[in-house]
Amino acid sequence: MTDADTNAAVTYGSYLRVDDLLALQQPRSAGPEHDEMLFIVIHQVYELWFKQLLHELDRAVALLAGDEPHPAQHTLKRILTILKVLVAQLDILETMTPLEFQTFRERLQAASGFQSDQFRQIEFLLGRKSDAAIARFPAGTRARAALAKRHAEPTLWDAFLHYLAREGYAVPREQLARDVAAPLEPSAEVQRILIQIYRNDATNAELCERLVDLDEGMQEWRYRHVKMVERTIGTKPGTGGSAGTAYLRTTLGHNIFPDLWDIRTQL
Ligand code: HEM
Fold first, then answer.
1. 114 CA from centroid of ligand 1 (Å)
2. Dist. CA 134–CA 120, nearest whole Å
3. DSSP string, 73-107
4. 163 CA distance to ligand 1 centroid (A)?
5. Which of these, 257, 254, 249, lies nearest to 224 by C-alpha position?
6. Does pLDDT of 3 surpass 60?
7. Distance of CA 52 to CAs 82, 110, 156, 216, Å?
8. Distance between alpha carbon 222 and the CA centroid of its chain, in Å?
9. Probe ligand 1: pick from 223, 248, 254, max atoms within 8 Å of CB?
10. Which among 49, 47, 40, 44 is positioned nearest to 101, based on CA atoms?
């Protein structure tokens, strides 16, 4: 029953479901070990921010689809500000020493951030889609349905290219009709358009710069996460079954929007 059903006055606690929220941190270690609370809280906070990021990214796509570059830029600014918080939060986790992590690590069994479907949804929206990432989640789960839906949807880059086409830029037909599940490949024609934008179209050049910020911000998170992992578990394998830091290093240095980086030399 909700407050609306009972006519009860809305309070801070009832609106934000504080009792429910505070009941969600359930350490698995005996004792429980002091540091496990931090580990749970920080992951839950990340998942909430991932939820908000998806909410904002969906809005950015919708605003581009509606030919509203200024609100789209504003939304991207919010996304970037959240990303900065996500990166900064790793500092808190780095106050946990390798020995402190060991006090409860075995209780995690195979659980790992690797299984965060919301993180994969963000990757999908930004153009890094994979069937394998969907298949990891059992049929009938919320996570699988959400990923399958995003797999079939246009990425933020697709929304941007369609917007540019409506702005009058000669975006090639094959780019506009590309398979939205395929990885984003560099395009010489798109790069020519982007160079033109940087030289003559301040509004859209700003939009491009915000996309580069987003790309760089995601890469910054990956780099900081790997270093945090390295200082916490060294070269031990991950709980998610990967080689740990060796695997995570393979995810570094990949530009999300390759065209926006390739043009830099020519500008
Ligand atoms: C002590 C803290 C942490 C350690 C030791 C750690 C370790 C790892 C390791 C080893 C992997 C590789 C997959 C595996 O085999 O498990 C991984 C992946 C991942 N972790 Fe963490 N992690 C930590 C904290 C976090 C936090 C706070 C988040 C935030 C949600 C996070 C999100 C992720 C994500 C999204 C991946 C998948 C990355 C990819 O596949 O590109 N991790 N983590």
1. 6
2. 9
3. HHHHHHHHHHHHHHHHHHHHHTTS-HHHHHTTGGG
4. 35
5. 249
6. no
7. 9, 26, 16, 19
8. 10
9. 248
10. 40
At 13, the amino acid letter reads G
Would you state the structure tokens that stand for residue 72, as one six-digit string? 């789209």
Tokens encoding 5: 């059903």
Q: In a mutational test of the pocket of ligand 1, which residue from 43, 91, 109, 114 has the highest number of ligand atoms less than 8 Å from its CB?
A: 114
Residues lining ligand 1, CB < 6 A?
A: 42-43, 46, 93, 101, 112-114, 116, 119, 225, 229, 232-233, 238-242, 244, 247-248, 251
Return the higher-pLDDT residue of 8 and 87: 87
Q: 18 C-alpha vs ligand 1 centroid, how far in Å?
A: 27
Ligand 1 atom 18: residue of nearest CA = 114
Tell me, what's the pLDDT at 7? 78
| Contacts made by residues 180-184, CB under 8 angstroms, sequence distance 24+ | 180/152, 180/153, 180/154, 180/155, 181/129, 181/151, 181/152, 182/129, 183/127, 183/128, 183/129, 184/127, 184/155, 184/157, 184/256, 184/257, 184/258
CB distance 71 to 63 below 8 Å = yes
Ligand 1 atom showing the smallest separation from residue 86 Cα: 29
Q: What is the pLDDT of residue 5?
A: 62
**Tens digit of each residue's pLDDT (9 = 90 or more) over 154-209:** 999 999 999 999 999 999 999 999 999 999 999 999 999 999 999 999 999 999 99
* Whether the predicted pLDDT of 6 surpasses 80: no
